[in-house]
Amino acid sequence: MLKKHPMSLYLVWIIILIVMPLPLIVLLNNGLVDSTRSLLIYDAGVVAYTWWLGIVFLATRPKWLDRLIGLPAMYFVHGMVGILALIVATIHVQLSFSMHAIIRNTGHIAWYLAIFGVVYAALFLSGWLVDRFPIVQGLKNKLQFFFKHQLSVWIHRLNILVILLIWLHVQVIPRVSRITPFVILFDLYTVIALGTYLWFKLVAPASEKRSGQVINNQAVSDHVRQVTIGLGRDSSKPLPGDFYFLSFPKAKGISKESHPFSVTNVERKKSMTEVTFTIQTSGDFTSSLAKIVAGEGVNLEGPFGRFDKIVSGDVNNSPLILIGLGTGLAPLLDLSKEYSDSRRVHLFWSLHETEKNIFDKQLMPILKQSNISLEKHVHRFKASDYQELLSQREINEGRFIIVGPAMGVIEIEKILHNLGVSQNHLTDERLTM
Q: Is this structure's pTM higher than 0.90?
């Protein structure tokens, strides 16, 4: 288990779950005179609150933390801590009692909103259920005509209202508000978390409004577009396999929320760096990308990603097996180019009939390299296909990276594991949203 995840991930868990709440618990318990049972009930409320502040900070997607643990791991921590906070808050709500209406009502309203938020996020904003249960996926698809992504994002921001209600809830408890050291630290935690979030949402985007410009936007199939964006020469160059969050703040008829897309190709030119994204137009945001014209301004948040760090961290020059489902091949193309000089690269591409030519421009120079081979298959590869096409060395020693729709990725990982591929050699990026 420890080999599969970076130690920094476990450190993040320890900081959020233990280190953050501990000073507040110590100050509260030293300032209150009450039974052990009552103090534990109060402590549960403090713990839940600090955990909610932690997930608000994670919602800002710190790039330095992404490079340490990866954005998927960050989202997992965000979701799990939210669930744990709700469980602990439930203990606090059910076992505590107050005669004061404002104390009681602020606590209960925050609790109800938190329950709604967790249930909603589990269905619409994560892959925990939809990735594994087709029935839930079908329900989500039916409801998405109303609960579109932009609305879902705003509903998820109810966490901020939950935090403000809990902050007020604590401030109006006379016994607690008189513990000055506790209140000062409690307020400081709140200001830091909410201040970071507001800076991320309001100040940072305003400073990056001209961070990029659309150079080209063309359909390469009925349901796939390639969008090329020009960046300044001084912009940070993405590493192979990286992705950005894109938004088009001034475009009409398209959501202003940012969405993640993997980099297909990077070209350095005299005046700018051109970054190409290959995007499947299956959602409400991506379907409206046809409205984006050349010259449109783009905000790019990133780059994010850990593929390059994982691959470069391998101790030997083991084979690199890259499996892309549909447009999931996009981030694997740059990885192929980057590492083909030092490692054997084996590309697997599962695609629909209409997607056969979407990567022609990018694949042409890649396949000229002798160290790269491509397996191209309309529809999914079966277990027998992988068994036939993979060498025993690839199965035993290879680094596997799989990118595509979540259910397909999970299915492939089961097949590879059954063939003898170690879980520690499997890395994925699941295109859930």
A: no
